[in-house]
Amino acid sequence: MDTTSETIVSATTPRGEIALRVRPDPSGSGVVHELVVAGVFAMDSLDPSTEVALAQEALARVDSPDRVLVGGLGLGFTTWQVLKDKRVRHVDVVEIEEDLVAWARLALAPTLGLVARHPRVTIHAGDVDRVLHGESDPAGPWDLVLLDVDNGPSFLVHEGNERLYRADALRAALSRLAPGGVLAIWAAQREPALLDTLESLSPTDEVLLEVEREGRRLEYALYLARA
Ligand SMILES: C[S@@+](CC[C@H](N)C(=O)[O-])C[C@H]1O[C@@H](n2cnc3c(N)ncnc32)[C@H](O)[C@@H]1O
């Protein structure tokens, strides 16, 4: 997190501090929004290319992505990219932090406002793990299930999310897909164990994405499994 960041709003949740912050854009125009979850820097708006790619790669793999589930609102980039696809009739977003859902409704960051006001979106406050196990609404099936709730099983922000990457949760997620649907998972690094587990359940693609951040080359990964 940049030391010149200013907090717009923050709250304490059972998982720790959540905050929206801004810092000057290095290009000299506008600001960069930052999201802190569980007291840890989660993401910013400087380069959302991999969050966007999560949506693009999944959308490219299905003919009729009528209904889409997005797990983890974040700053809204994945959801906004889904909404740009006119084939999509409805998007359910499940976000664990109620405060973030409220801030989206107040449009405290640009993409959050666009997503929260969109007529084809319903934002649900809750744990996507419970939704995938059928223990809380919304109910599927979905043509796409996109999960970007954490950095990946080897580098968790919320320890509680470890269960989401286990075989039973992945099987539950695949079972929520309509025929021909795709489960797509974002990770901040390659996750060989996750790939093995997914491949044991369903044909899976690994897509590696190179991003340059603060002078360093980073490799993110997407995992896309077919119903
Ligand atoms: C990295 S952000 C997602 C970024 C998003 N793809 C975007 O484009 O801005 C992760 C989000 O997942 C949420 N989250 C974490 N664990 C969750 C869970 N188990 N269920 C639902 N949301 C969760 C966090 O609060 C955070 O908003």
TrEMBL record:
GO biological process: polyamine biosynthetic process
Alphabetized CDD domains for the sequence: AdoMet_MTases
Keywords: Polyamine biosynthesis
Any Pfam family the entry gives: Spermine_synth
Domain of life: Bacteria
UniProt entry tagged with the keyword RNA-binding: no
InterPro entries: SAM-dependent_MTases_sf
Matching Gene3D superfamilies: Vaccinia Virus protein VP39 (3.40.50.150)
PANTHER family, per database record: BLR2883 PROTEIN, THERMOSPERMINE SYNTHASE ACAULIS5
Name of the protein described by the UniProt record: Spermidine synthase
The species this protein was found in: Janibacter limosus
